[in-house]
User: Fold this.
Amino acid sequence: MVWLAVLPAGAAIKKTTDETPRPPRRLTQDPADDGAVFREGEVLVKFKKMMTRSEAGMLARDLAADEVREFSLLSQWRQCAYMLITSSTATTQELLASLRSRPDVEAVSPNYRRRRQRLPNDPKFPRLWGLTKIAAPAAWEKTTGSPEVVLAVLDTGVDYRHEDLAANMWRNPGEIAANGVDDDNNGFVDDVFGFDFSANKNGGRDSDPMDIDTHGTHIAGIMAAVGDNGRGVCGVNWNAKVMALKCFRPDGFLYDSDAIAAIEYAVLMKRDYGVNLVAINASFGGTGDSPLQKDAIAEAGGQGIIVVCAAGNGSVDSDQTTFYPAGYDLPNIIAVAASDSEDRLADFSNYGANSVDIAAPGTNILSTFPSGKGFAGTLLSGASAYDAMPLEFSGPPPLPAWPLSWSTAAAAWTAVLSRPPSWETSP
Assistant:
């Protein structure tokens, strides 16, 4: 994705860092899209043809736009311009109305935000019941997977240092870590484990896709935590590699513009750099229809990449209320509902005879958490290790009978219960 400095004549070029003051961005609901929330003053546009830099400048002046960001890879691949347009003076509705009236515009939508599809957290769970339910042990008799297969997690990031994930993290063979150089000339500096497309509130980028929450690491462990290593948990695939595509901003939401940029990266790495990326996991969604996001996913499909999408956690019929990206009618999308240990639809899961493809275990799933953030702990006594009971639902303990200060007690429990790595039930 490329920033074009296309500003009205005489205007100063604005930096896109968090340090530069900017007009506040409000989150607004589009009355045409039930429940859809987007970033005010931003729209995603697909034009019918390619656009030169001078044409983009004229467009920016016509729309009173501050910045135009082009999805340059998607534009090249599809030979028409795909852009994110930002204005601090025009509203989203004004931008939509102006662009829809232009004959050279094929599609336009707000820059919708998406929520993570979180799952209930029940402290009493049968550990790893889902692997038995899907007959994974029988499958492992035939194969435990291949390190030549790469799976992308488009999420909050991944804790690539976690001892149950580190060995299975994808590493870009053409990149030298932390040297500040784009060694493989793919347009991304130091993209060793993947990339961060949402480093700040305005969608800034950096090379570190470390998990800022817990969700992406949890998903990565379900997919491909190292198996048969005597530690923690194992994934469905013991050996596949995980590419981390961080797309959730610090506000806790994923914006379509960041997801499109991440999908561009995934397609680029498969198409031009030979990465055997077979699937992208997308455990997020919302009700807003984004033609640009749909085209990006279709482009991934053209490279043989499956996009596995959450059906949604709203307990609604997705045939009646479409949930995106799961609801796009594309052959490479698999829309997945959640089931429980009795093979029943989870009470929070969306459903739909036409819009949902499959259900899979999705309640009380034990998996990896970022180091130090889980509730599982280990107590070491000499050469012996004991599981410590999680305390997330416990109240404060009674005052000790012996003379021990609270600070000392707190430090002792912190040392025991916060030791990385961590494993925990689904968030």
About this structure: The mean pLDDT is 82. The radius of gyration is 23 Å.
